[in-house]
Recover the amino acids of this structure.
DNA sequence: TAGTGAACCTAA
DNA sequence: TCAGTTAGGTTCACTA
């Protein structure tokens, strides 16, 4: 049966045909820009492929006839057959997890963990690799007098205590402790003369047995003739995946090679088994920095909600699912489909599959997803909306074939709740859907983590980054469009497609995949950790890797809040307006360089005796005695960053440039988060001696810098004027050098930075960064100025710090007003113009010429009137506006839509 | 009406 | 079972 209808011909014919099919309605007079974009894909593909019936814009009334072979593009390329005896298998690993299985050789009764890596080959074939033979373990110090003769007794007793400790033993476990070995290790916390001691390495049968074993050992454990003892445990709080990766030198998203003869093909296309010591992990360098042609699927669903009620999965049906699939590195999606409930008119450049039953639609879409087999799934708020909605809906409809979304056979995707709390991000409730082997890359989550925005709606975000917006369909009319005809449903489908397309575009524009991969490679954690976990795990991963080389082990510390420590100095500002150039000198990577310069580390901290004293009185050994792990990590990060930047300068290939830029960025961020890790009191390994010493050095340095610059650049030393530090914060000083031109300020600033640097221990370095001219210093952490750095002739931007223009808790009217005033003052050098503008806006406000329904008028506006409106106007305006200060309910940051542009003065 | 503390957001 | 740091400005509700 021919159930395909091809709208043949090139774009023009297709479009006109689509138009002819339309009925009346104001929105239908011409295809939207997005529709034209879609049709361009079609045209390009027709030329490239000269294939019939594939690139097309089909409408397929599917009914019960859905088949994964409806479109040959959906499937991955056919996998060339693999002979383990003669072929190596090389793939980029993108995610890994583990599962438990019984009946492995040597462990017939007990379950053992098996690491499972998912990845993609250069030719775009997907790989599932089972890695055998790696077991979880942790350490405790051996009690004094312990010898290898005691190992058996220790192991037996620990095993029995752990078994007893288990409340229920539903798996019928009889062996919990697999092995106990004596090994020479040293605690990484504190310097103790490089004395390695006997540690017991305790290997457990399963990851989840580590915690009870640790607990019984800590609480007081007795075995043989040894007295009862509370054991301090080491590395008992390391995620199993991280443990494996650290021990086998695997970093996130690295390339894995399975040598011939070392693996066996077990099931389907490239599902392989290998021993954990048999594979090769390639460091992400040179050619191994490349990225496999990953398949990225973006999707969006539409629901037919009831009027004014947010759709509920137990009542409101899913009516459309749009999907777009793109290969990483390519610029356009090669699959564009919409699954619709009921008929839908064709859309040039996309394939439409129409269903009569919602259950069929859902199950077919899941089948489509399995066929496409994406490595990365993206979309907007898919984590907390689309996936939960689809899964709940599938349950309601008893669509049992739906919920197998991962790459593991017989593994259902289920929902669970996660509560996440941190000082950095506040409380966050999230829903988690397990989809084994596919990385869920919800663009909303990426944006919430990485960008501070006024609004996080897809529309606002798309406008902000792409200057593009969603198709114009109000939520309230979705149900009406669905209940209309195939033309109204077509309009909905275009809208839905665009909502699937925009996340893909944003992902590309923001280079999320590349940047996150580089972060995973640099820090060593799996890609998924970067979106699901905090900052600490990245440092832990690096710390463990560095420590392992020196047989150092990481203690488990119990979280304990305590007194805060002193942070950085903010120099009291000499507030005012400066119509002369102000040079800014910055210490580059201040905290990392302090830690390197002074060898600050867990491993170098002296808890008693004498040695280097930090400003806070803490003591660390010099690097000649023992070089710290943290300085080593930081040196690696910063030198790798330098290399990346050098390579970046040489590289001409735009794609490789992106990778390198992502890399240097990840390296910088990683270096800066090491300090925060040591200061995180409720963290994996806090050490306030380190963090307070770092800030202590910082305070000394900023003070010394101020004194140096003010003592050298004086009239008595032959300079034009006495230099004056008018402000400084943490790692920077703003200096009024008393010169008239930006050029002079740059020259002196550069020389001063170099000279001052020579007073500090390398790699500490003060750099000339920029000149502000003019400069408006309002208060601590609040200033604005024209920014000169590359050229002395042209300012690059108006730099505003801490002022309302950059804060998200003001309405845009305030931000815009102040921004314009600052432009008048700094760029036009016309304070009267600022006054005039402020007056105008405020009087518009007073005369109700501005729609105030969405604005929040704060005292800041009044103050602005006072500050910028000059002497006479000041009193008058301030008084008139004060009475008008009121507050409309102020929505929280999330889901806030300000009117996209501020009403301009009328 | 001045002082205080919480909430929020930003600088670094 | 998980969470990077401190400094500091502004607004606003509350209190004596």
């Amino acid at each position: 049966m021919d159930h395909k209808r091809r709208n043949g011909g090139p774009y023009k014919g297709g479009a006109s045909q689509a138009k002819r099919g339309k009925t009346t309605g104001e929105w239908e007079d011409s295809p939207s820009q997005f529709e034209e974009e879609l049709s361009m894909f079609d045209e390009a593909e027709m030329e490239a492929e000269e294939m019939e019936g594939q690139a097309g814009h089909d409408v397929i009334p599917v009914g019960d006839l859905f088949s994964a072979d409806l479109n040959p593009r959906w499937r991955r390329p056919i996998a060339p057959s693999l002979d383990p005896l003669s072929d190596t298998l090389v793939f980029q690993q993108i995610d890994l997890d583990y599962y438990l299985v019984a009946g492995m050789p040597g462990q017939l009764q007990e379950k053992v963990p098996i690491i499972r890596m998912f990845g993609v080959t250069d030719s775009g074939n997907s790989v599932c690799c089972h890695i055998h033979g790696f077991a979880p373990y942790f350490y405790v110090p051996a009690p004094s007098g312990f010898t290898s003769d005691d190992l058996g007794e220790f192991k037996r007793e620990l095993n029995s205590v752990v078994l007893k400790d288990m409340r229920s033993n539903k798996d019928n476990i009889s062996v919990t402790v697999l092995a106990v070995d004596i090994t020479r290790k040293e605690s990484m916390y504190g310097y103790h003369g490089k004395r390695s001691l006997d540690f017991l390495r305790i290997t457990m049968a399963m990851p989840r047995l580590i915690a009870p074993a640790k607990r019984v050992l800590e609480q007081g454990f007795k075995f043989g003739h040894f007295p009862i003892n509370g054991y301090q445990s080491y590395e008992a709080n390391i995620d199993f995946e991280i443990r494996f990766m650290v021990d086998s030198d695997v970093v996130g998203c690295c390339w894995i090679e399975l040598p011939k003869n070392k693996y066996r093909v077990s099931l389907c296309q490239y599902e392989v088994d290998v021993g954990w010591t048999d594979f090769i992990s390639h460091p992400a360098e040179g050619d191994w920095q490349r990225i496999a042609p990953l398949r990225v699927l973006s999707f969006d669903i539409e629901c037919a909600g009831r009027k004014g009620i947010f759709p509920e999965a137990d009542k409101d049906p899913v009516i459309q699912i749009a999907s777009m699939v793109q290969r990483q590195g390519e610029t356009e999606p090669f699959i564009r489909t919409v699954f619709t409930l009921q008929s839908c008119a064709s859309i040039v450049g996309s394939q439409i599959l129409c269903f009569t039953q919602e259950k069929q639609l859902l199950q077919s879409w899941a089948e489509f997803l399995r066929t496409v087999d994406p490595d990365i799934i993206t979309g907007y708020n898919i984590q907390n909306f689309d996936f939960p909605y689809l899964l709940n809906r599938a349950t309601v409809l008893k669509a049992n074939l739906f919920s197998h979304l991962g790459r593991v056979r017989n593994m259902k995707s289920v929902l669970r709740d996660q509560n996440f709390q941190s000082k950095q991000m506040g409380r966050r409730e999230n829903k988690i859907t397990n989809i084994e082997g596919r990385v869920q890359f919800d663009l909303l989550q990426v944006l919430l983590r990485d960008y501070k925005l006024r609004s996080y709606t897809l529309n606002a975000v798309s406008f902000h980054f792409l200057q593009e917006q969603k198709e114009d369909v109000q939520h309230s009319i979705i149900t009406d469009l669905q209940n209309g005809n195939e033309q109204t449903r077509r309009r909905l489908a275009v809208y839905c497609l665009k909502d699937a397309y925009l996340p893909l575009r944003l992902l590309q524009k923001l280079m999320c995949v590349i940047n996150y991969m580089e972060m995973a490679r640099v820090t060593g954690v799996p890609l998924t950790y970067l979106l699901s976990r905090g900052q600490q795990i990245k440092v832990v991963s690096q710390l463990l890797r560095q420590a392992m080389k020196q047989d150092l082990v990481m203690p488990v510390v119990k979280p304990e809040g305590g007194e805060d420590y002193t942070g950085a100095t903010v120099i009291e500002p000499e507030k005012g307006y400066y119509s002369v150039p102000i040079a800014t000198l910055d210490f580059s990577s201040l905290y990392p360089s302090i830690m390197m310069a002074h060898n600050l580390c867990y491993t170098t901290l002296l808890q008693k005796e004498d040695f280097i004293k930090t400003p806070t009185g803490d003591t660390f050994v010099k690097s000649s005695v023992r070089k710290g792990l943290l300085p080593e990590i930081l040196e690696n990060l910063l030198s790798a960053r330098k290399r990346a930047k050098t390579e970046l300068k040489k590289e001409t290939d735009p794609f490789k440039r992106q990778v390198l830029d992502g890399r240097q960025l990840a390296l910088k961020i990683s270096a800066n988060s090491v300090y925060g890790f040591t200061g995180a009191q409720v963290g994996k390994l806090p050490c306030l001696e380190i963090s307070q010493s770092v800030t202590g050095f910082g305070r000394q340095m900023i003070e010394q810098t101020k004194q140096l610059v003010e003592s050298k650049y004086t009239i008595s030393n032959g300079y034009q004027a006495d230099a004056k530090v008018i402000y400084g914060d943490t790692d920077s000083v703003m200096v009024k050098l008393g010169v008239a031109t930006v050029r002079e300020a740059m020259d002196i600033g550069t020389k001063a930075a170099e000279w001052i640097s020579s007073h500090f221990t390398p790699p500490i370095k003060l750099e000339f960064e920029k000149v502000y001219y003019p400069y408006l210093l309002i208060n601590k952490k609040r200033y604005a100025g024209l920014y000169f750095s590359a050229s002395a002739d042209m300012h690059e931007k108006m730099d505003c710090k801490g002022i309302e223009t950059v804060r998200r808790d003001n309405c845009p009217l305030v931000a815009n007003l102040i921004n314009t005033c600052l432009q008048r003052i700094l760029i036009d050098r016309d304070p009267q113009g600022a006054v005039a503008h402020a007056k105008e806006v405020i009087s518009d406000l007073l005369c109700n010429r501005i729609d105030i329904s969405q604005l929040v008028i704060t005292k800041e506006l009044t103050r602005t009137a006072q500050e910028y409106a000059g002497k006479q106007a000041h009193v008058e305006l301030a008084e008139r506006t004060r009475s008008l200060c009121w507050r409309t309910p102020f929505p929280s940051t999330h889901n806030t839509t300000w009117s996209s542009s501020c009403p301009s003065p009328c």
In short: The longest strand of chain A covers residues 89-104. The domain at 294-510 of chain A is CATH 3.30.420.10 (Nucleotidyltransferase; domain 5). The first helix of chain A runs from residue 11 to 20.
